[in-house]
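Email to the structure team, subject: LSU ribosomal protein L21p model.

Hi all, the expression group asked for a predicted structure before they design truncation constructs. Nothing fancy, just the tokens so they can compare against earlier work. One-line instruction: predict LSU ribosomal protein L21p, return tokens.
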Amino acid sequence: MRILLISIPCWLIPTLIGLICAILGYLLGKLLNRSNDNNENIDIYKNRISKLETDLAACMSSKEVSHTSGLANTIAPKASGIEAVVFNADAAKAALGKKIKENDLTVVEGIGPKIKELFHSHNVITWKDLANCTVEKCKEVLKSGGKRFEIHKPGTWPKQAEMAAKGEWQKLKDWQDQLDGGK
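Reply from the structure team: attached below.
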């Protein structure tokens, strides 16, 4: 053993240790630099997302909501012209016994939050919009949402929405008391 240590030149051990440290330093530097590149990429993508969101907001604000564009083609208004009245939250609360928000489609018996979202995605946003839909068009909207929505019966929904749009709260309440889940 002594002979082996004596035959290794004294400069070789520090050189090998230095070389190993250099390789480890290089690899560590590459590893740390890679995470900085990822952070830069994340910043780039965040900036792109922000710009796209700004563009979308500008587009949405400049777009006129129309019943004849895009998905709204499935919801053509029927011929009747319904004159909506000014919304009176106190009268609605007095008749229905709960606080009502203007144009909340869930006031219509049989419409819940998910169905309301489905109608909103088809540009049926107000009671007047729903009142102007035919029952067949309501069924088409429900069908577009999939099997779980097809089971609903929208036969009374346009008429209920018409009463809400006209502010006929007591009449709506009396009729809803007779209905079973909007049927």
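The chain has two domains: 10-62, 70-178. DSSP finds nine helices and no strands in the chain. Ping us if the truncation boundaries need rechecking.
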